[in-house]
Write a structure and sequence with these properties.
By secondary structure, the chain is an alpha/beta fold. Helix content is about 45%, strand content about 10%.
C-alpha cells in the first residue's frame, strides 16, 4: 500500500514567512526596536494574529565595547561572526544586525554565513538616491563617522558623506554611549545635535543620516529642514519586505542595489 505524502508541512502555506535573524544586544534599546518593528510591520501587512518569525541573539555588549575601545576589531569580528552563525544554526533565512557601528566587521559576519547578511547601509543609501541626493551628513559613533567601512559603502551607491568636525564627533559619540544606549534623552543633547546638523548642512550635506540605531530617540524630521534618513527604519523596512517575501533575498556575496 502506497503511503500518501502530504503536499506541505503542517502550517506551511504559499505565504509562509521567512524567518528573520536579529544580531542584537548592542545596545538593548535598539534590539527591542528592531523586534517590535519587524513584528509590527509584518502584522500591518498580513493582519489578524500574524507575527513575524524572529530569532534574536542578544550579544553581551560588555564583551564587545572593550574591543571597540582597544581597536581590536579582528577579535570583535570573530566574536560577532560566531554569534551570527548561531542564528543560522537556529534556522533563520537571513540576518540583520541591530547596530551601525559593528557593521565595521560586516565582512567577517558575512563570511561566516551561508544565509544572506543584510547590510544596514544598503537600504538607506537606496532611499538617499531615490531622493536625488548626492551628499549626506552622517551622525553616529566615532567609529561610524570616521570609519571607511561606512563612507565607502555609501560611495558604492554613488552617495558622498560628510561628518562633523573632531570636537563635534566626540560630543555626538559621548551622547550615544553615556545617554542614549541607556535610554536617556536629554533636551540639552537634542539642542547640541541640532547645532551639529546645521553645521553639516553648511558643509554641503543635502540630507542627514542617523547612523546610530539610538539617535532616532533624540532627533527626527522636526529638528532640521534637511531630509532625515533613519538607518534603523530603513533597515527594518527591508527586513519586513524580505520576511514577507516581497523582495528576493540578496546574494550571499555583496549585492548592491
Amino acid at each position: 500500500m502506497t503511503q500518501r505524502v502530504p503536499d506541505s508541512v503542517p502550517g506551511e502555506t504559499a505565504e509562509t514567512l521567512r524567518t528573520v535573524g536579529v544580531l542584537g544586544g548592542m545596545a538593548p534599546a535598539s534590539t527591542t526596536h528592531y523586534y517590535e518593528r519587524i513584528v509590527g510591520g509584518v502584522n500591518d501587512a498580513r493582519g489578524g494574529h500574524t507575527s513575524a518569525p524572529v530569532v534574536v541573539y542578544s550579544v553581551d555588549f560588555g564583551t564587545v565595547e572593550p574591543l571597540i575601545d582597544a581597536d581590536r576589531w579582528t577579535e570583535a569580528g570573530s566574536l560577532l561572526a560566531d554569534r551570527a552563525a548561531r542564528l543560522e544554526a537556529a534556522g533563520v533565512d537571513f540576518v540583520v544586525m541591530a547596530t551601525n557601528t559593528m557593521h565595521r566587521v560586516a565582512d567577517d559576519i558575512e563570511a561566516a554565513l551561508s544565509v544572506p547578511f543584510v547590510h544596514i547601509v544598503d537600504p538607506t543609501a537606496a532611499a538617499v538616491a531615490e531622493h536625488g541626493i548626492d551628499t549626506v551628513g552622517v551622525l553616529g559613533t566615532q567609529a561610524t563617522m570616521e570609519g571607511a567601512f561606512y563612507s565607502e559603502r555609501f560611495a558604492a551607491h554613488g552617495v558622498e558623506t560628510v561628518v562633523p568636525d573632531a570636537d563635534a564627533r566626540e560630543t555626538v559619540d559621548r551622547v550615544i554611549f553615556e545617554e542614549l544606549v541607556h535610554g536617556e534623552v536629554r533636551e540639552a543633547s537634542r539642542e547640541t545635535y541640532r547645532d551639529v546638523i546645521a553645521d553639516l548642512r553648511a558643509a554641503g550635506a543635502e540630507g542627514v543620516v542617523l547612523g546610530c540605531t539610538e539617535i532616532e530617540m533624540l532627533v527626527d524630521e522636526d529638528d532640521t529642514t534637511l531630509p532625515v534618513f533613519d538607518t534603523t527604519a530603513r533597515h527594518v523596512d527591508r527586513a519586513v519586505e524580505l520576511c514577507l517575501g516581497e523582495r528576493e533575498l540578496p546574494a550571499t556575496e555583496t549585492e548592491w542595489e
